[in-house]
Design brief:
- There is one protein chain.
- 81% of the residues lie in helices and 0% in strands.
- It is mainly α.
- The protein has two domains: 2-226, no CATH class; 242-317, no CATH class.
Length: 318
Amino acid sequence: MIYLASAAAAIIPMLLYLVFIWKLDRYEREPFGFVFKNYLWGAFGAIFLTLVFGFFFSAFASVFIPGKNAFSHFETIIAAPVVEELMKGVFLFITINNRKFDNLTDGLVYGGAIGLGFGMTENFLYFITYGSNLNDWITLVIMRTLFSAAMHCVSTASFGAFLSYTKYLSGAKKIFTIIAGFAVAILIHFTWNLSVSLDSSGLIGVISLLVIFTVFGIMFLISVFNEKKIIYRELLEEVNSGLIPADHLKMIHSSHNKLKLIPPVSDQRDYQSVAIKLAFRKYQLRNSINSDRYYYEEDIKYYRNFIRELLTQSTGNE
């Protein structure tokens, strides 16, 4: 019974968190299947590598750190943040090469998905190991669901945000940004682990995590606002070229689907979705320096033709 209850308590909240952060990407929402693959990496791949590399890392460090208490603090405060963030983040280097990965919001969503997957499995292991009685189990479920697992989400999401910025960089600047992002993820993890390792640390831990969540929320708001600017800037060119009516631009780059177009379009939702994809492909093409340029150019042609045909059909139906 404890295993079934622990599995439910570990899985259900993390999946709800996952859907929530996925829906925060209002403009060009990433394929949920691919987001879920990142979640599964965190839940299984990152956990497995953490156990393997963590064992060897701790074995090596134990030679230089005398004393059981000191070594325990080292594992919690230093080793865990470094090893876990590395193992969680390594899959992001695969994700970032996806051609649809193009901006800060994508990095936050994919990184957050990995962190939530990792938090799910870690929570389950904690629930079945340390939930010796009902009161302890309930306390563990509440604390780890609200704080520890969410910390994993925020730390890896932050690394994902930095990696999204590096997609169109090269050379020393790219390497520096990757290292900086990894350092920020470790710092977030380190701050939380340190705060909960101190005596009478409950309040300190809550405050530190609230600060981290606030910063994460601000990052998400900035990323969505930046997406809105990209959509407006790129589609303004299409307005000036005559493809998109000027009256449509406000509706297209709005995060709401309830605005009505003047003149009307037969399928407003498809129209808005394709126009937004066109804007992001133009942005990707503008910044791309590799072989993906042909892919983006072909997508841009396709989306322009789709919009042209949709507007022509709508005009003919009036």
